[in-house]
Amino acid sequence: MANTKILLREDMDNLGGRGEIVKVKSGYARNYLLPQGLATLATKGNLKQIEQERAALLKKAVSEKSDAEAQADQMRDIALNFERKAGENGTLFGSVTTMDIAEALRVKGYEFDRRRIVLKDAIKETGDYIANLKLHREVTLEIPVTVTAEGGAVEVKDAKTQKTPTNEAAEQPAESAQTEETDETVNEAAETTETTDDE
């Protein structure tokens, strides 16, 4: 299949960066890249125009990379913490996804498309993880993510042991009643003995 030489206007995974001239299959260029405005045909006829556009795109790419590096430095200390309902073995009732991470970043004042956040797999257990945030084609920030169980096993155990004092409190009145009945019986026996002695 014939190939076509194009100038990339945007960074494209597996193809190249903005401002690069690459060869792709003609059908891919004609049906997707060109209609979407992601690339321009690079031919001998528009060589001068291509070089001018390429220079402008490369300059923009350098500026964007510099901005991305500055943002990475600004966000270097960010760490995200999530509390989720989990079973005793740490398995979550659900998962922590790139959407959750994007929302947590938004709360901290950073807006990012979830597609720029990369997780090796969806987080389905408690523990420590790393989310990769693609700030630029050549700049990736690693964000620590910690997931803990909501409430935790300790609180569940405490909740169970709290029933014991209640049961003891319920038993105390019964024991007191039995003691009072025994005391009354002893008193009655003593009164009967005193009456017999008087006679």
How many H/I helices? Answer: 5
User: CATH H-level name of the largest domain... which superfamily?
Assistant: Ribosomal protein L9, C-terminal domain
Could you tell me how far the N terminus lies from the C terminus, measured between alpha carbons in angstroms? 132 Å
CATH architecture tag of the largest domain: Roll
Q: Reading side by side through the largest sheet, how are the strands ordered?
A: 4-9-8-6
Dominant shape: elongated
Structure in words:
- This protein is 46% helix and 26% strand.
- By secondary structure, it is of the alpha+beta class.
- It has helices spanning 26-33, 47-74, 98-107, 153-161, 163-198, and strands at 3-8, 21-25, 39-41, 80-84, 91-96, 117-118, 123-125, 127-136, 139-149.
- It folds into two domains: 3-71, Ribosomal Protein L9, domain 1 (3-Layer(aba) Sandwich); 80-151, Ribosomal Protein L9, domain 2 (Roll), CATH 3.10.430.
- It has five helices and nine strands; from the N terminus they run E-E-H-E-H-E-E-H-E-E-E-E-H-H.
